[in-house]
Amino acid sequence: xxxxxxxxxxxxxxxxxxxxxxxxxxxxxxxxxxxxxxxxxxxxxxxxxxxxxxxxxxxxxxxxxxxxxxxxxxxxxxxxxxxxxxxxxxxxxxxxxxxxxxxxxxxxxxxxxxxxxxxxxxxxxxxxxxxxxxxxxxxxxxxxxxxxxxxxxxxxxxxxxxxxxxxxxxxxxxxxxxxxxxxxxxxxxxxxxxxxxxxxxxxxxxxxxxxxxxxxxxxxxxxxxxxxxxxxxxxxxxxxxxxxxxxxxxxxxxxxxxxxxxxxxxxxxxxxxxxxxxxxxxxxxxxxxxxxxxxxxxxxxxxxxxxxxxxxxxxxxxxxxxxxxxxxxxxxxxxxxxxxxxxxxxxxxxxxxxxxxxxxxxxxxxxxxxxxxxxxxxxxx
Length: 381
Description:
This protein is an alpha/beta fold. It folds into 2 domains: 286 residues, Rossmann fold (3-Layer(aba) Sandwich), CATH 3.40.50; 40 residues. The chain has an 8-stranded mixed beta sheet with strand order 3-4-2-5-1-6-7-8, sandwiched between helices. Strand 7, helix 10 and strand 8 form a beta-alpha-beta unit. Helix 1 packs across helix 13 and helix 6 packs antiparallel against helix 9. It is globular and about 55 Å long.
């Protein structure tokens, strides 16, 4: 079984939509897939999937000590695709105890399928990060705006802190070193991981090799979603450079996905977009992502990609973005000529883009103020 946790640093970047469409596409390619809603306390993946009448799921399992999780996995209308709902109606589901989380993770490992896709909650909460770390090959979904890329970076940084916490036992020299940093009032988010690791290696040479092995096995993957223009694809490469420089890990690029105007119509019809528009731009992009996932079928034991291979993936994604954009623009022109898109639709699109630009300006002003403050305070380890 290949486990694919799908996460995002913030909501609204299309994570659940992509999880659903990737799952369906894998199933259409003959793989047995189980899609799990792990957005605990706020799960609505059944809506994206078009499943109605949910009465049980992860929540049922957590409040039923003798329950076998496989009995809660339900069939869907798509051949070879199965679904485990979040069942967010259970009180306290968003705040799992350690024992509940451990039991759930162990149970997920017993599910029988080719691919287990875990749609996680947005943000960098402990539960979300821990579920993401079930596999070293988790997928981060982000969008080409500052808020989305920044929170994707911070998500991965928090994941590394969790790896540190698990690799250095309580009362070890490494754990004591980390406790001293916290007690000194130093914000861990201001620490450069690469510098921190140098000091950890000196502080605890006994446990550092275990941590180093775990970190090398941590090979997250990226999907840049909601592109509006080809130039936005280059932001993935910039994000990668930042991750390599300041976090000391590399990240593989699974592909780019353009914003698709048919997505809202597909959702309203209760159909995932790969079913609603099988030859659409988004469907083509999802197919490319799935092909790359299937190439890494070895799962967590897959050999590491060389840096040159990862670099080539980013260049390919930028080329694909240009091709998708041209196809998308051709489709818009066709719809307009046929009268499927009215002047009002175009005006509404421009208004929406203007609103998004205003939001980006606000984000930029906020980030500039943060940068100015940080430059005054200084970044210290």
